UniProtKB/TrEMBL annotation:
GO BP term, pick one: L-tryptophan biosynthetic process
Statement: the UniProt record of this protein carries the keyword Amino-acid biosynthesis: yes
Pathways per UniProt: Amino-acid biosynthesis; L-tryptophan biosynthesis; L-tryptophan from chorismate: step 4/5
Domain Indole-3-glycerol phosphate synthase: 6-260
Protein name in UniProt: Indole-3-glycerol phosphate synthase
Protein's gene: trpC
InterPro entries (alphabetical): Aldolase_TIM, Indole-3-glycerol_P_synth, Indole-3-glycerol_P_synth_dom, Indole-3-GlycerolPSynthase_CS, RibuloseP-bd_barrel
EC number: 4.1.1.48
Reaction(s) this enzyme catalyzes, per UniProt: 1-(2-carboxyphenylamino)-1-deoxy-D-ribulose 5-phosphate + H(+) = (1S,2R)-1-C-(indol-3-yl)glycerol 3-phosphate + CO2 + H2O
Length: 267
């Protein structure tokens, strides 16, 4: 069977984590996590923003497997500040290096330059990475249901909650959504991009939104470009969005963020 990009990422990520553990034991990472900047309320910030407008998780993203280099002029702290001035609610910072040209330090730099809560955007397979996320200052972690078992997803979620963080549970189809709903987190991210094929369609949110029950908070992720896209997704119950590429391609990130959020459809 051919390997998907997710399989490849998982393989090198497990090696990376094993090397990290050998270099720095869990006890040291836990000590760093305990000493880190206090947790900022990620989910709560989105719930509040969605009452009167849209919640925006603005992504600090230099490159991707599907698009290659997205932004040459890339300074995480400056970009994060532009997002904040433009009205974003939260940050998402890619910390994976091989596929996204991200870095762990980008998370700390971006978050500490703003007052926004931050998501560690990475591929999580081990509670060690969750403690490390907190040590870097993260307020939320990502759990990609396409890439983990139910048991591991619950273990990662428990670890995040144990550190006082939130967990964004990401799904792309009905089966993953059903599994995600067995977890406790209210944050359900529907990724419009199929991470195995890169095919991106807003139909993913349109279809899956029917099966997101009351009490869960729907976040539409990927492939969102315009205010009309956001208004469209809002008709399906998504009042928060995770957006990277379309904002990262703008010269004036602050103005582009403001424009995107300017005219929300009423809640
Ligand atoms: O973006 C990719 O090409 C990608 C490939 C494989 C795994 C994950 C990938 N992206 C992660 C994301 O989900 C997006 O960075 C995020 O939702 C923002 O999407 P966009 O606004 O389309 O940059």
């Amino acid at each position: 069977m051919t390997q998907t990009i997710l399989d490849k990422i998982k393989a090198y990520k497990l090696e990376e984590v094993a090397a990290d553990k050998a270099a720095k034991p869990m006890s040291e990472v836990e000590a760093e996590a305990r000493a880190a900047s206090p947790v900022r309320p990620f989910a709560q910030a989105l719930f509040e923003a969605a009452k009167t407008g849209y919640g925006l998780i603005s992504e600090v993203k230099k490159a991707s497997p599907s698009k290659g280099l997205i932004r040459e002029d890339f300074h995480p702290a400056t970009l994060a500040q532009a997002y904040e001035r433009g009205g974003a609610t939260c940050l998402s910072v890619l910390t994976d290096t091989p596929s996204f040209q991200g870095a762990k330090s980008f998370l700390t730099e971006a978050r500490s330059a703003t007052n926004m809560p931050a998501l560690r955007k990475d591929f999580m397979y081990d509670p060690y990475q969750v403690a490390e996320a907190r040590a870097l200052g993260a307020d939320c972690i990502l759990i990609i249901m396409a890439s983990v078992s139910d048991t591991l997803a619950a273990e990662l979620e428990d670890a995040a909650f144990g550190w006082g963080m939130d967990a964004l549970i990401e799904v792309h189809d009905g089966e993953e959504l059903e599994r995600a709903l067995k977890l406790k987190s209210p944050l359900i991210g529907v990724n419009n991009r199929n991470l195995k094929t890169f095919e991106t369609s807003l139909d993913t949110t349109r279809v899956l939104s029917n099966n997101v029950p009351d009490g869960r908070f729907l976040i539409s992720e990927s492939g969102l470009n315009t205010p009309a896209d956001l208004a469209d997704m809002a008709q399906y119950g998504a009042r928060a969005f995770l957006i990277g590429e379309s904002l990262m391609r703008q010269e004036d990130v602050e103005a582009a963020t403001r424009t995107l959020l300017a005219d929300p459809v009423p809640a």
